[in-house]
Amino acid sequence: SSGCRHSNPDLSKSRRTRSPRGWTLPSAGMSDDIQNLKNFDAFDDADETTGDQSKVHIRVQQRNGRKCITTVQGLADDLDIKRICKAFKKNFQCNGAVTKDADLGEIIQLSGDQRTNVNDFLCDQEICTKSQVVIHGF
Description:
This protein has 138 residues and is α+β, with helices and mostly antiparallel strands.
């Protein structure tokens, strides 16, 4: 015995090879098809020019204390935003307003955290699909 702790040649460090990704053991026919080792870009499928136009963003902004405001932006231009806001106010029993922004278009503001209510309403009334709605906050 030469004093080496690993007498088995399969486990000795000399069989391992150094690669750019770190130490690797000699593979017996294994390829790089493992999904976890590949680079993955989460924003690869997002088209920045047309994707944001079709998305409806629902956000919550904290005011003071327990008060918060829900904002809905990105609804299609051909929709009657004021009528949708009126339906939100009636169904959710909250106050609301429509504000115009130069960049973002018309934005609906509702008092309280109405994210799930707005999402359900938009999908039930077929104003937009579930895949178009993006919920932000907390």
